[in-house]
Design goal:
heterodimer; A: alpha/beta; 5-stranded mixed sheet; 11 strands; globular; B: 208 residues; mainly beta; 8-stranded antiparallel barrel; disordered N terminus; hydrolase activity (chain A)
Chain lengths: 277, 208
């Protein structure tokens, strides 16, 4: 075979080989750290976890118990320890992560966290945090987890998960989306009580200052609001910062090696237990 | 002095091509064309490695073709990253060994290098005044990282009229970036494996 025809064959084969490798979903062939392509098993995790939750329903009137934590960002060693500990907890229905799943808003990080948390015996659900919205994280989070604002009912409790990371949108007056939140708070979807979960609390400098007052007011006006739960601060607390009857709960980060076991019942009764791991 | 040295290296690079097999040269010795110092020695096309889905570049080889410096521009379509990204990058690499496995085939079994990239058109890269100073410690758009790789080169006959040597290489690079490595370094109890940090680039490089 002449060298020239060999050369031509190489030229023809190269793009084909690259195409085949790209299409075969070779994970390593990453176009950018912002590349949000992941295998199907790492997409729509919110929907998939809600389906698991639905498959294991809670009888009406039953007390609900769940684990509350936040800020898993870059704490993979701790994530393993957390999973081991949570898997020892009896009678819990799911685990909530109050945002900042990732540190850099990258698909690989969200996938790494899922690879840990999918080993839980219960499903887990997330709300978006400011770190998840860095770079192209906004699109990546939606591909891997799902909607930035969503709600679900489990047993007698409605959970409203809302994006409150106003600074990531340069305080554009749209986040939190009050037009979405208010009807959510007004409609119980058949539940008896409500829990609102977000990442940035309204009394934080990273919350849109134009919306903190109307946001807190909307929560104050909500009937049977058991808890308002946040992350972001890497410091656990339970209190009423506005002295308005609304209890705000803040989670530790995974790095603090504690989580909360939260029990809710009645119209708005709750008990919170801190667990070290 | 430094610029003199650099010019010397640049001039030396084209003068030391892989020698073509004697029987492929035409009977009349081709005139040696003196190249302009800025003329690139190779062009490349690659995918992956965090530098784009389709990435093209030009580069220079120095020190007997043992050091390559490449400048690349890459593209990632919107459907793969949430926004259409332009990625500009520079790569510097060193390939100390070469094996002539056949008359016209050379293998560079080991390449070590590093890159810097800048990504254009990310969705939220921080507007002026959006964040207080040092709010995030890392840059959204600037990445750098190491890689190792290898290269298989087909030594084509030189262009008869000018004696310009030609080579066509396939290369691969296994690399990572500053953020993946930072994630690994903060989890020393096995929370992440090295394999989870890796990216792969595949490309072709044509010397002319």
């Amino acid at each position: 075979m002449s060298p020239l025809s060999t050369l031509r064959r190489w030229f023809r084969a190269a793009p084909l080989a690259i195409l085949v490798l790209s299409l075969s979903g070779c994970d390593l062939l990453e176009f950018s750290p912002n590349d949000s392509r992941v295998p199907e098993e790492f997409t729509n995790l919110t929907q998939k976890n809600l389906a698991k939750l639905e498959a294991n329903p809670l009888a009406p009137g039953d007390t609900l118990r769940f684990v509350f934590t936040g800020d898993s960002q870059q704490f993979y060693d701790e994530a393993e320890a957390l999973v081991k500990s949570v898997n020892q907890q009896p009678d819990i229905s799911f685990l909530l992560v109050a945002g900042d799943i990732s540190d850099f808003g990258l698909a690989r990080e969200m996938r790494w966290v899922d690879e840990k948390l999918r080993r839980l015996n219960v499903p887990y659900l997330t709300v978006v945090g400011n770190h998840d919205l860095i770079g192209n994280g906004r699109e990546t989070y939606q591909r891997i987890f799902g909607d930035l604002n969503y709600s679900f009912v489990y047993g007698d409790t409605k959970f409203i998960m809302v994006d409150t990371n106003g600074r990531e949108y340069n305080f554009n007056g749209q986040v939190p989306n009050m037009g979405w939140l208010k009807p959510q708070l007004a409609n119980f979807d058949g539940a008896r009580r409500q829990v609102v979960v977000a990442h940035v609390p309204p009394n934080d400098v990273d919350f849109d200052p134009a919306l903190s007052v109307p946001y807190a007011q909307a929560l104050r006006d909500t009937e049977n609001l058991v808890l308002k739960m946040n992350g972001h601060r890497h410091s656990s607390s339970v209190g009423q910062p506005y002295d308005d009857g609304v209890t705000y709960v803040n989670s530790d980060a995974f790095s603090e090696r504690t989580y909360m076991v939260v029990t809710v019942w009645g119209d708005r009764e709750f008990r919170i237990k801190q667990v070290q791991f | 002095m430094a610029s003199l040295l650099l010019s010397a290296l640049l001039l030396a690079a084209p003068a030391s091509p892989a020698a073509p097999p004697a029987d492929t040269i035409t009977a009349v010795p081709a005139p040696l064309v003196v190249r302009k110092w800025y003329r690139p020695t190779h062009a490349l096309l690659q995918t992956g490695g965090g530098l784009g889905m389709v990435t093209g570049g030009l580069g220079y080889a120095f020190v007997n073709n043992r050091i390559d410096a490449d400048v690349l521009v890459g593209y990632v379509p919107k459907r793969f990253a949430g926004s259409a990204l332009g990625v500009a990058s520079i790569k510097l690499m060193y390939s100390p060994f070469r094996l002539r496995v056949a008359e016209q085939v050379q293998v560079l079994p080991f390449t070590i290098g590093g890159y810097y990239s800048y990504t254009h058109n990310t969705i939220n890269s921080g507007a002026s005044g959006q964040y207080p100073a040092d709010y995030y410690w890392f840059s959204t758009d600037s990445r750098y990282g190491p890689f190792i790789g290898g290269r298989f080169t087909y030594l084509a006959p030189p262009i008869a009229a000018t004696g310009t040597p030609r080579k066509l290489s396939f290369y691969y690079e296994l690399g990572s970036n500053d953020l993946y490595i930072a994630s690994y370094l903060t989890n020393r109890d096995g929370g992440l494996g090295i394999g989870q940090l890796l990216t792969l680039a595949l490309g072709v490089k044509a010397d002319f």
